[in-house]
């Protein structure tokens, strides 16, 4: 298990991640942003000011900024929802901050509520403080379109925030609808800060699989479902009416989630190494099929969870989380991941434990070990 | 009457959280009015399409972003495929993508 970090009573500079300009903007400009900028800029500017040696400890300055409300200590959930208003500008118009009023927009409500559930899941189950484990703000943009002339059938993580489209209504509904999809996107952030798995080939398929595993676990945890009661689907309810399918992926039975011409035919996911799909390691080839071959490690996790029974976020989740944080490196293959989870199971539960045996047997069953 | 010059464009998509690959869309300039066909030629030139790398460099990291691939078989015999995310593409390339998408709807 990853050692739990003490909760520091300080302002977290989490918002600085991925913000290359923060370190080169002079302090006077930062103060200007902190006083006059949009909330996101204000928060970043304030974090930078507080983090700089020159100004550290000058508490009176904070009063002058009138921005004390933005000083959220680490260990506290901080969600911010933006509306792209069917455009591609990021982050978009600020529509809801932490504790802000609900409003009528269901996409905003879902992005807010579900990102909160994901935060709570990681915090409660693994003692993790947000995506970076340092209290990073959870920013989401809804009603996004990469091309303003076309409905956006996607949700993605851009390295610093989550982004959701409304769907076209004929193949997909709104992408904020499913807790597991939101868990999937945020877990891409967690993976980025932990194993840092490269987004191609087997490491890329593992990256995708960890997002599916923890996305599914968030949903099971929220519904208080034991492994044998869970649907083990990713994105159930996301497909529009009339589409022949139930979800984006099935961890229980990879390759069975859909079969529809609009989706390019049948769900192509394999559940065993003998069916590993070799695609070009290019962007056009889904980087070697990262969304396809993830079916194999997905199914391995399903097997562990159902062999052990009970809550999948218990022993199985802890083993996978320990491997992701402490053992798996950026270029890991399926076999590396299998050995890492076996090592985690031994470290957490013992060398002859049922947990270790279940993990080993599952990777053997999908043809990895 | 000589056969009309024909440039064929095909648009495919990969990536996205769903990981699905919808059926590619295709456009043949021979089927277009002369002005529309000319406009496509102008856009190909403006985008400097045949000089673009096979993959445009990404502007951000992250995961699950869409990747679009445009393949052009030009009347002059050249063929080239460029894969790009919307944010990494020039305005001319984005317009080509939209034209192939919309023409295919007919």
Structure write-up:
The complex is a heterodimer of chains A (369) and B (106). Chain A is an alpha/beta fold and 369 residues long. Chain A has three domains: 13-70, no CATH class; 79-177, Elastase, domain 1 (Roll), CATH 3.10.170; 201-365, Neutral Protease Domain 2 (Neutral Protease, domain 2, Orthogonal Bundle). Chain A has helices at residues 27-36, 39-51, 59-65, 106-126, 179-193, 201-223, 286-289, 295-308, 315-327, 334-349, 354-365; strands at residues 79-87, 93-96, 138-144, 155-157, 162-164, 233-234, 249-250, 259-260, 265-266. In chain A, the strands form three sheets. Chain A has a five-stranded mixed beta sheet, with helices on one face. In chain A, helix 1 (27-36) runs antiparallel to helix 2, helix 5 packs across helix 6 and helix 8 (295-308) packs across helix 9 (315-327). The longest helix of chain A has 23 residues, at 201-223. Chain A is globular and about 55 Å long. The two termini of chain A are 23 Å apart. Chain B has helices at residues 34-46, 91-105; strands spanning 8-15, 25-28, 66-73, 79-84. Chain B has 106 residues and is of the alpha+beta class. In chain B, helix 1 (34-46) runs antiparallel to helix 2.
Q: What would you call the quaternary organization?
A: heterodimer
How many strand units of chain B?
4
Please tally the β strands of chain A and state the result: 9
- Count of spatially separate domains of chain A: 3
Mean pLDDT across all amino acids of chain B: 91
Q: What strand order characterises the main sheet of chain B? A: 2-1-3-4
Question: TL;DR of this structure?
Answer:
Chain A has 369 residues and is α/β, with parallel strands linked by helices. Chain A has helices at residues 27-36, 39-51, 59-65, 106-126, 179-193, 201-223, 286-289, 295-308, 315-327, 334-349, 354-365; strands at 79-87, 93-96, 138-144, 155-157, 162-164, 233-234, 249-250, 259-260, 265-266. A 4-stranded antiparallel beta sheet of chain B has the order 2-1-3-4, with helices on one face.
